[in-house]
């Protein structure tokens, strides 16, 4: 999102650098790289020369036989390169100043930024177009030169700018200390596992710090400007014991009450954001439809945990995952995009690691997530970031999947799809550590049926199947008989596999 403020050349060069963060990319032909970037070969070659000159300490660029390979030294993140380009960008420089103060005239601004009035006007126009394209309700006015935005918009977007323009170790609030922010966070997160989940992210502290700094300065959010009700504020307040409601902001003592919570939560918590598992009740939802969707999501996650024997996850943790997915949908779109800015390859790598353990689980989990978020039109990197977050929050997932990964696959197909589905659910509960049962809702394809790659087939007498040794007609059998047959076949498959391993070892 923020890269759109950069020049076209800076965007191209950042794109080139980002490509070579992918561990799967070893070398790319210059023609293919030009196509990936969307530029001519001559422009690409100039960009490569510039990257090599600008960052000779940070990376090694090799060009041989029409191939390009960039080795990025381990101490340098994508964020480092983004920040470097941002500091060379007039638009970022102008925003950095205007977020802090207004400038009386264009002539004065031209002197401050060492720009001609014409160049300054063009930069301002690009910034205003950026706001318009992203539907951010803000504009830069020229008389005086200032950012025209509401206090809530300021508090929402200023942290996003600071996060990329300054280093994480630069504390930019002149009055509010990091410890004051931490103290307030601890009081609230004591009873909110959702806030506790985000406690380690520096960006969260920065957002609250800006709210505290603006409140200290007297730049307040007008009543009704931020969509959080008194009921919501009262609920948060009740969670903080009365003897722990004193905090300091800029060295001054404040009592946490509803008006103060309103100021500190602006841009962060609204009526749709769920902070506590205890809020998973209809009374806490502005609309019953959202409550019903969240309840259904929790039940799907619960079913997954049982189906795949993920024994480490507790009900409270499943509730937290449900809350995280729900809140992500109501998060400001551009703030949401922030969280998916830089982790593209670590996300893909971790997902692949889980997929290698059990791709069925990942597919079913992602299907649950997508079904819930589909009305919110969350796609691309933002969707990938959410799935990644859920996989990382799921307690002891890797060990549980390793322990419970089925060794074999079975297909159930009779004339009754609903029976097949229910019977598959039952048998998956019985054989979850050894065999996974599937059913199909598609019409049976007589030709392709012979090509299916299952270890066992549970069918009706009307379903033709050439896999005689591994198939069972279950229509007239009791469940006990079916279970015993499956047990015997699993034992036989295990013995065959052991014999195969011994033969490989002997050879």
TrEMBL record:
List the InterPro entries hit by this protein, alphabetically.
Mga_HTH
Residue ranges of the Mga helix-turn-helix domain?
89-160
Q: Which domain of life is it from?
A: Bacteria
Q: What Pfam family is a match, any one?
A: Mga
**What is this protein identified as?**
Mga helix-turn-helix domain-containing protein
The scientific name of the source species is: Facklamia hominis CCUG 36813
Native organism taxonomy: Bacteria, Bacillati, Bacillota, Bacilli, Lactobacillales
């Amino acid at each position: 999102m923020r890269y759109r403020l950069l020049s076209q050349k800076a965007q191209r060069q950042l794109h080139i650098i980002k490509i070579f963060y992918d561990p799967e990319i070893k070398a790319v032909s210059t023609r293919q790289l030009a196509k990936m970037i969307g530029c001519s070969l001559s422009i690409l070659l100039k960009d490569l020369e510039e990257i090599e000159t600008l960052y000779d300490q940070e990376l090694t660029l090799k060009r041989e036989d029409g191939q390009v390979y960039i080795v990025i030294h381990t101490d340098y993140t994508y964020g480092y390169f983004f920040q470097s380009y941002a500091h060379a960008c007039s638009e970022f420089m102008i925003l950095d100043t205007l977020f802090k103060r207004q400038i009386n005239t264009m002539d004065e601004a031209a002197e401050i930024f060492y720009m001609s009035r014409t160049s300054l006007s063009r930069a301002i126009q690009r910034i205003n177009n950026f706001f318009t394209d992203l539907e951010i309700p803000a504009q830069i006015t020229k008389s005086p030169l200032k950012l025209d935005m509401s206090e809530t918009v300021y508090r929402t977007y200023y942290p996003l700018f600071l996060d990329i323009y300054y280093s994480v170790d630069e504390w930019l609030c002149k009055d509010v200390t990091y410890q004051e922010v931490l103290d307030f966070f601890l009081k609230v997160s004591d009873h909110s596992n959702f806030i506790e989940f985000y406690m380690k992210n520096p960006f969260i502290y920065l957002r609250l710090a800006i709210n505290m700094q603006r409140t200290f300065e007297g730049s307040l959010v007008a009543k009704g400007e931020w969509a959080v009700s008194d009921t919501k504020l009262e609920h948060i307040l009740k969670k903080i014991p009365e003897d722990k409601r004193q905090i300091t902001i800029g060295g001054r003592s404040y009592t946490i009450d509803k008006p103060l919570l309103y100021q500190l939560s602006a841009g962060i918590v609204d009526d749709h954001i769920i902070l506590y598992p205890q809020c998973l009740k209809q009374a806490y939802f502005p609309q019953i439809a959202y409550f019903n969707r969240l309840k259904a999501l929790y039940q799907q996650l619960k079913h997954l945990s049982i189906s795949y024997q993920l024994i480490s996850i507790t009900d409270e943790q499943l509730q937290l995952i449900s809350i995280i997915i729900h809140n992500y949908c109501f998060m400001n779109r551009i703030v949401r995009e922030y969280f998916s800015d830089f982790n593209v390859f670590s996300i893909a790598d971790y997902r692949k690691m889980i997929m290698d353990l059990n791709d069925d689980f990942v597919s079913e989990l992602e299907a649950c997530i997508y079904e819930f978020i589909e009305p919110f039109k969350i796609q691309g990197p933002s969707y990938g970031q959410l799935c990644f977050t859920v996989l990382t929050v799921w307690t002891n997932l890797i060990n549980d999947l390793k322990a419970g990964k089925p060794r074999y696959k079975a297909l159930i197909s009779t004339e009754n799809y609903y029976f097949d589905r229910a019977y598959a659910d039952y048998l998956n509960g019985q054989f979850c550590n050894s065999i996974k049962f599937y059913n199909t809702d598609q019409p049976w394809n007589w030709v392709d049926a012979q090509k299916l790659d299952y270890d066992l087939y549970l069918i009706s007498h009307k379903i033709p199947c050439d896999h005689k040794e591994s198939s069972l007609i279950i229509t007239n059998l009791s469940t006990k008989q079916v279970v015993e047959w499956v047990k015997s076949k699993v034992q036989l498959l295990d013995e065959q596999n052991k014999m195969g391993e011994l033969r490989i070892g002997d050879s």
